[in-house]
Amino acid sequence: MKFGKYLEEKRRSLWSNFYLDYGALKDLLKECVSERDDPGQGAWASPRVTSLSVVRAPRGAKDPAEERFFRALEGEVSKVGRHTAAVVTKLRGRQSRLLERIEDGDRRDAALQRELMEEAKAIGDEILQLEKYVNLNYMGFHKILKKHDKLLPDTPCRQFYVSHLHNQPWVQGNYSDLMVVLSNCFSLLRGDTLAGAQGGSAQAFNRSTTKYWVRTDDVSAVKRVIIENMPVFVFNKDSYSGDAQLVNSVYFDNDSLELYHGRLDKKPGAIAFRIRWYGPNEPSLCFVERKIHRESWKGEKSVKERFTLPEHRIVPYCEGDYTVDMYEADLRLKGKGEEDVARAAALFLEIQQTIDSKQLKPLVRTQYMRSAFQMGHDRTVSFTLDTNLVMLKENAEGHPTCATLGRWYRDPGLPVHRTEITRFPHAVLEIKLALPEGDAAPDWVKDLMESGLITEVHKMSKFIHGTATLFPDMVQAVPYWVDDESIRASILASATEPRVGRGRDGASLPHEEASTAAASRRRARQPGSSPPRDDLGEPLLLGSSQDDVLGASPTPPPPSGGAEGLLVRLLRAAGVGGAPSEKLLEATPQRLEPKTFLASERTFLSWLHMAVTLAAIASALLAFAGAAKDKHDPLHKVGGNLVVFVALLLLPLAIAIVAYAVVAFHWRSTQIALKRAAAIDDQRGPYLLVTLVVLALSAIFLASCIDLVDALREKNGETLPSNAGFLQGGTQLPNGFQLAGRLTVHQP
To answer: What phi and psi values does residue 588 have, to the nearest 5 degrees?
Structure first.
């Protein structure tokens, strides 16, 4: 679909005069091409003299079409900005008036409460319409600038003008405060009360966590659904005014990626170790966290434990210079009780020993804006929504490692190479339920799960995705979700070889570009971020040197020894890089459940049931034929010879089904045990067996009809030719024997 038509279909009629005039800008571009191709018009010359080589335009000549294009483009940018500012001002005024009416209104007046609730929902709808308006226009500007550079390659402007576009207030503006105020309105209308922390034993609740992907242009719609039923959890009312805060997590692993492969395979006891801090500034207070995987189907629960350390203690802690005795002394100085000190010291020592024994070091960082939704301290139902998700290598290519520099996280002053960073195209929603035994999730949560706005991704891990994408030459297996088409572009963007194309047809769908535009606009308005670049440099979100010109350091070649990474070969198969060298390693699918083996066994038993049924029928027919006594009854030929024929057809068929079931069960069990991502459904075997069954039944039906007619004719005294009848002796065999019927031997 052409973008002009897409824009016409998606625009809101109430604001139709305030959208980008895409058609007029396209017409100006056509005039530019016409003037360039027709030198006789003279308008292609610049009206300003910048050098003696530039021809001055004649007096009275109209401005070149390209200058008129840029003036019109700037006018469209200003128009969108003015309308956005006016709508935001209007929305804030409506929210203020709504809050006043809620606080002053009578809560016992049901009609008034319904009216206020409808007004709150209308404001929420307006916020969603505003975001769609901004994203649609933002995408339109990108499209028209791309078309300009395509039609006029001698005067490219896209890279410069996109940077200018990112500095516009309607792009930089952070309107998350609208969501926070709207959340407060819904909270007051619901009469929410802050609940205390949950008590009781851990066994009293069914705790479950499920992760979902959310398309970037659906993020606000998901937020709207959640805040209608649950308030935004403001992390720090003194420091943050929006509904989200920046989260940085540095994950540790060793050279063999032991922790990565353990978490990927979901091995019992597999650990993940990270150091996390919150906020846009350099870390001061850090959270040292350890996650241990347990098998839920065994009744065990995964464990996440953490303790805090000041930033200057992290490196001595990892190197073993900051001991547990020193840590205990610091805790006692803070007034901690002996029980708390003992518990924290035990975790402190366990993690420190793990770092030393496994030789863990900083590997990859995840960075995102996190919004949380929960009812005070009541975590019965809670949500976290992570947007602007970025993953980057903690050790810069071509520079000393963090350990060499005496650091535990990347130096913000270093440039970030394209192959050192990957931007995840979706938001990640995490739904956490801690419900009493027998209770189901609230209906509105079920409706959200089934709304189509979110897509479940079982056991999705930011650490696993970042490691698999950024270290393709080191991993021996990758998570199953890397095959998803929606994230392929982000994976290829950080590949070691530059991209060679956008797709088969060279164009992307408007919906995909809308998601990309929304994600880019969200990144642009985050503190410390820069517009996306098409060159080899990418800015680091944290630090003070984002405006520096980023250099492109050479990418080191993959190691010559050892097995080549799976993702490298997947990228080559997708058209990036050279020819593949060996057979691809299989990607590891989601976790292995016992029910997978049980399902395979049920399939095996189903085939056996069918085979036993056929064998039982054949055996019964043989027994019936052997028990027949009246050899002179013409119908005995149907009841005797025919049943033997049927049994001889069904018995081999039953044996074939048993053989197929055994082979298929063995093959499928092997595939499941090895956790291979290959398809484990047999697409040919069932068709072949069904074909054999149909042929056998057809032969039985045909033989029954022929033999029945033969027997009836013989009973009526008709004389048949010697070669008539299917079972009475039609087919001649060597040495004078005839098939079925009465076996006769010709006398010499």
So the answer is: -80, 125
**pLDDT tens readout for residues 245-274:** 899 999 999 999 999 999 998 888 899 999
Quote the pLDDT of residue 577.
Answer: 43
Q: Is 607 left (phi over 0), alpha (psi -120 to 50) or beta?
A: alpha
Is residue 389 within 8 A of residue 519, CB to CB? The reply is no
Dist CA 497 CA 563 (whole Å)? 19
The angle at the Cα of 184, spanning 448 to 116, to the nearest 5 degrees, equals 85
Cβ atoms of 538 and 417 within 8 Å: the answer is yes
φ, ψ dihedrals at 610, nearest 5°: -65, -45
Q: Which pTM value belongs to this model?
A: 0.62
What angle (nearest 5°) sits at the alpha carbon of residue 437, between those of residues 433 and 442?
45
| 502: Cα separation from own chain's centroid | 20
β pairing state of 454-456 and 361-375: unpaired
CATH numeric code, 177-573: 3.20.100.30
Output the pLDDT for position 579.
41
Give the pLDDT confidence score for residue 505 in this predicted structure: 39
Where do the structural domains in the chain lie, given as residue ranges? 3-173, 177-573, 594-736
Distance of CA 638 to the CA centre of its chain: 64
CA 80 to CA 422: how far, in whole Å? 31
Eight-state DSSP code of residue 188: H
In angstroms, the CA 716 to CA 645 distance is 24
* Alpha carbons 308 and 303: distance in angstroms, whole number: 17
**Residue predicted with more confidence, 60 or 743:** 60
* Two structure tokens written together for 521: 């606009």
pLDDT at 459 > cutoff 80: yes
Q: How confident is the model at residue 84 (pLDDT cuts 50, 70, 90)?
A: very high
- How far apart (Å, rounded) are the C-alpha atoms in residues 249 and 278? 9
Provide the H-helix boundaries in 19-109.
22-37, 65-104
> Residues for the chain: how many in total?
748
Q: Which two tokens stand for residue 625?
A: 């034929």
**Mean of per-residue pLDDT scores for the chain:** 76
Please give the average per-residue pLDDT across 37-41, as a whole number: 65
